[in-house]
Amino acid sequence: MKTLTADLFLEMLENGANNLTNQHQLINALNVFPVPDGDTGTNMNLTFTNGLNDAKKAVSSNLGEVSKALSRGLLMGARGNSGVILSQIFRGFASGVEGLKEADVLQVASAFQQGKESAYKAVMRPVEGTILTVLRESSQEAYDYALKNPTISLEEYFTFLVERANVSLDNTPELLPVLKEVGVVDSGGKGYVTVLEGFLATLKGETIERLDADEQAEQAAEFIDHEEFGYCTEFILRLEDDSRHKYNEAKFRKDLEDLGNSLVVVTDDDLVKVHVHTLTPGNALNLGQKYGEFVKLKIENMTEQHNALTDHEELTISTHEKYAIVSVAAGDGIVGLFEELRAKHIISGGQTMNPSTEDFIAKIEKIDADHIFILPNNSNIFMAAKQAKDILEDKDIHVFETRTIPQGLAACVMFNPEAELDENIVEMQEAIDSTKTGQITYAIKDTMFESMEIKKDHFMGILEKDIVVTNPDKLETTKLLCDKLIDVDDELVTLIAGEGVSDEEITDLIDYIEEKFDVEVESVQGGQPVYAFIIGVE
Description:
Elements: E1 3-4, H1 6-28, H2 40-57, H3 63-77, H4 80-96, E2 103-104, H5 105-122, H6 131-148, H7 154-175, H8 177-182, H9 187-203, H10 215-225, E3 231-239, H11 249-257, E4 260-268, E5 271-278, H12 281-289, E6 292-301, H13 302-316, E7 321-329, H14 332-340, E8 345-348, H15 357-364, E9 369-375, H16 382-391, E10 397-399, H17 405-414, H18 421-433, E11 436-442, E12 447-449, E13 452-454, E14 459-463, E15 466-471, H19 474-485, E16 492-497, H20 503-516, E17 520-525, E18 533-537
Parallel strand pairs: 7-8, 7-9, 9-10, 16-17
Antiparallel strand pairs: 1-2, 3-5, 3-6, 4-5, 11-14, 11-18, 12-13, 14-15, 16-18
Helix pairs in contact: 1-2, 1-3, 1-9, 2-3, 2-4, 2-9, 3-4, 4-5, 4-16, 5-6, 6-7, 6-9, 7-9, 15-16, 17-18, 19-20
């Protein structure tokens, strides 16, 4: 077979999407940090699934038209930086086959070259040892191969492309030292190779079936993709003596993963704490009850909360404003903080829940303002926010690269609704640059990071991008982090407590900071998942 038709391309896309779905958890696990928020596989999976759905709707026998529909779906559904880069690859590919009913091997090879160029243009500071390297090296070598061998089939071309992509992927640890230290390849590169391997399987006559695609899993995927959040289900379980020997955290975690997302499971002696977003909270409770009795449980309907927020917005955003601030946030307390500081346009998300480009567009299109500021509050959301800005050319949008919640809050504090645009931009950016952030979470595996030995389930203190302390005790880890985070020139410390942090723990930490440092301490129950404490220092 030497020609790529629209029908064949759709079959390849289906196989690529199924392969990515089946392996997305493995790709998530390639996270350099051993933290419970690895989401590269999830982001790429949701992005590609959205693109496939739009490609299917094209109902065309024209390869150029199907590719264009794919590109649009990927563009709008792009989540996380890896998802945005994936969308740009196939945006370039679509440009390469534009106007073609079908494409020969050299045209396909050329289209992947255009995908490479499009992806590189989208990244301001490309880093070697990432998906971009895998894309660049493999597409160039495969293009050269096609030029030298003009009679090859599509299968031969993709066999070579996949082979070279895997060689490049395996070499990523040699280009990024942190990958080598942790012993993983680049997760984004792995996701891209997974898609290509799905394409090749089609050309070999193989069909990749989506694993565990029962009705419940399908519903959960649809649920996540359309931002209808279901039920936030939390419980603390005391393991019963006669069932403790049956309890296996890995199996328990896997069973819960089949029911939803944003999963956190922490086992401490005879207590198990669970947080999960699911369509079927009863099933999650039934799983837990097999092992013991509930000490505490809480179920909240996030769909109702989301709808209530949307209804409220539609009542309040119809009036014209000079400024509007759009902020990404998760956790009732954090959302409340942003709203108090005039950031009333909230997009639910953050770690483990990166909003898509379409989420930003849907929010911004409802806003009537002269100037719109976007606070992503997470570096993995920058590209989706900027992609939304590029699409909405008729609006004056400014994306601040806030990497953390404290940076976003600091920007809001310095925002002045009466000031001129340039003055606000300068003041808000200075506040962002002068804010330090520390975060406390737990390790999901044993690993090494910059010669620091980290044990599974131990707590870790992260200062900006680096893990700087680890300890089995949560409060002790937080205090050690504060010692490294706060210095003599600092004036204000903001403690944002996450899910499950008690008032006693907050009081203990405030007392420690005030006794040791000459700073003012403010605290709030943020309610965020995954991170026990987020600490902002100014």
